[in-house]
Amino acid sequence: MLQGKIVKAAGGFFSVQDESGKEHVCRARGALKRGNKSLMVGDNVVFDPVEEDPAVDGIIEEMLPRSNRLDRPPVANLDQLAVIMSIRHPDCDWQLASRMFVLAEKEGLAAFLCLNKTDLTPAGELENLPALLCNYPYRVIYTSAVERIGLESLKENLEGQCSVLAGPSGVGKSTLLNAIQPGLTLKTGTVSDKIKRGRHTTRQAELLPLAGGGSVVDTPGFTRLDFKDIEADQLSFYFPEFEPLIGKCGFRDCRHISEPRCAVREQVGARLNPMRYDHYRYFMNELEKQEVY
Ligand SMILES: Nc1nc2c(ncn2[C@@H]2O[C@H](COP(=O)(O)OP(=O)(O)OP(=O)(O)O)[C@@H](O)[C@H]2O)c(=O)[nH]1
Ligand SMILES: [Mg+2]
Ligand SMILES: [Zn+2]
């Protein structure tokens, strides 16, 4: 039996890297194909080398306990989520970023936002961002892969950690990784002229070692993200900026929507970023609809 980490998963085959760095193509035992046990990139596994099967080098027998997992993109055992958005082509989806941050908080992951394609920002708009992002609770890194701006900062934020890069198709996730890590030759796509959307170039999540230590998972883009297993009453805990205010509302079970004497609402536009509070309201509404009475 050998131990390793899944670095790629496609069509029922898993590339498992053993401790020496060697990759083994494996299949999984049936029980590791369903539900919560279904294997994902980042999983640590025990596998049995096989010689008689020409298609694979081993069979995965067991998945070791996970410290955390994201469903979308499906990756396990992370330290950090790097949300990648472009300022233009496609436009930054701030709400999707907040959605990803909620899921990161739920899994106890650190997170930051990387705003790419600063070279495409219309004149004057970059200057407006600080106001929009006043009291934004996550670190924001500005990059242009094309003009090689902000790449050192991105690199520093990734080094030594296991991070997943997630965001819509076409924002430049793969391009940024190629730019910060010489030797990577990740396939990149173009953004359609008409609808300014990416073309889903990256097809599978792939875990890549970083030269300076740590690793990153490049993932396929997505624009839809549903909340699963989140209770309406838990939502405020996944907005870290609310934390100092929790327990200070007039009602103990305040959901910070329309209740009187709400300490959270009082701070919107002051200590709290209004856009983030809008996202909170939107998500709360969505979760309340899912609640079963
Ligand atoms: N102008 C500009 N274009 C960029 C920048 N970064 C990436 N691009 C372009 O954006 C397009 C999409 O880049 P990708 O790296 O394939 O995007 P992705 O996020 O990996 O997309 P998926 O793999 O489909 O999820 C390519 O044409 C890149 O050249 C940038 O900083 N500025
Ligand atoms: Mg890509
Ligand atoms: Zn409140």
What does this protein structure show overall?
The chain has 3 domains: 2-65, Nucleic acid-binding proteins (OB fold (Dihydrolipoamide Acetyltransferase, E2P), Beta Barrel); 75-218, P-loop containing nucleotide triphosphate hydrolases (Rossmann fold), CATH 3.40.50; 232-290, Orthogonal Bundle (Ribonucleotide Reductase Protein R1, domain 1). The longest helix is centred in the C-terminal third of the chain and has 17 residues, at 274-290. The strands form 3 sheets. It has a 6-stranded mixed beta sheet, sandwiched between helices. Strands 1-2-3-5-4 form a 5-stranded mixed barrel. A two-stranded antiparallel sheet has the order 6-7. The termini are far apart. It is α/β, with parallel strands linked by helices and 293 residues long. It has helices spanning 94-106, 125-132, 151-158, 173-180, 263-266, 274-290, and strands at 2-10, 13-18, 23-28, 44-49, 58-63, 69-70, 75-76, 80-86, 110-116, 139-142, 162-166, 206-209, 215-218. The structure holds guanosine-5'-triphosphate, magnesium ion and zinc ion. Residues 173-174, 201-202, 218 line the site of magnesium ion.
